[in-house]
Specification:
Layout (H helix, E strand, L loop, with lengths): L2 H27 L9 H9 L4 H20 L13 H15 L8 H25 L5 H13 L3 H24 L7 H20 L22
Helix pairs in contact: 1-4, 1-5, 2-3, 2-7, 3-4, 3-6, 5-8, 6-7
Protein name: BCR, YitT family
Organism: Clostridium coskatii
Keywords: Membrane, Transmembrane, Transmembrane helix
């Protein structure tokens, strides 16, 4: 593969991270809950003096370390580049929160619209990362590793993984605030819609073809990432 093609692929990947950051920001600003994978960082950002993006970065590092611990010497060397995903992802989440700082819907229909816009942005980010076919977002990488190790379907592990994160967020929220924050009906809507919207993007942009690798993220059967 030529250097130009590699540069283009990484540009597409980073663009995907950018749209994922915007999508997560919009789903969060909808006040209907955030995406499952971002539920824990969102709750923690309400408790401690770190931003949503900074906690997203820290969680990405934790996911990467989990992958390395599980695979050990079998961890693909090229996937060590995932360490650079966290900072970009966290930066784009905080950038999105800054861009959409004026968004504060009060009417339920307005909240739904903001949530849907976030889902479409998040799904576009997911799709761009898939067609880039370079490295994997740690949030999806850890699910892929667990699925491979257990012999279970990616989609099933993804559902269990996202559900676990939501439960952790709920427990932290109840313990700290005495009520549930970050996880609401929007979280479920996001989990269901993002994967299906990604398929729509795939249909629309079907001229973009890519070859799957053994370690590459499979179709998003249950939700989004990151």
């Amino acid at each position: 593969m030529s250097k130009l093609k590699i540069i283009i692929r990484y540009f597409i990947f980073i663009t995907g991270l950018f749209f994922m950051g915007l999508g997560i920001s919009l789903t969060t600003k909808s006040n209907m809950g955030t995406s499952p994978i971002n539920s824990v960082p969102y709750v923690l950002s309400m408790i401690f003096h770190l931003t949503l993006g900074q906690f997203t970065f820290l969680l990405s590092i934790l996911f990467l370390l989990t992958e390395i611990i599980i695979l050990r010497k079998d961890f693909p060397k090229e996937q060590f580049l995932q360490v650079f995903v966290g900072p970009f992802f966290g930066l784009f989440v905080d950038l999105g929160m800054s861009i959409f700082r004026f968004v504060n819907p009060n009417i339920y229909i307005e909240k739904i619209i903001v949530l849907l816009l976030g889902c479409f942005a998040l799904a576009l980010g997911v799709y761009l990362q898939v067609i880039a076919n370079v490295i994997i977002n740690p949030g999806e990488g850890v699910v892929k590793v667990i699925a491979n190790k257990t012999g279970k379907k990616f989609g099933n592990i993804k559902i269990m993984f996202d559900s676990t994160l939501c439960i952790i967020a709920i427990v932290i929220s109840l313990f700290t605030f005495g009520k549930i924050k970050a996880v609401r009906e929007g979280t479920i809507i996001c989990a269901v819609l993002v994967g299906n919207i990604t398929k729509i993007y795939s249909f629309i942009f079907k001229r973009f073809k890519y070859k799957k690798t053994k370690y590459e993220t499979e179709s998003y059967e249950s939700s989004e990432s990151i």
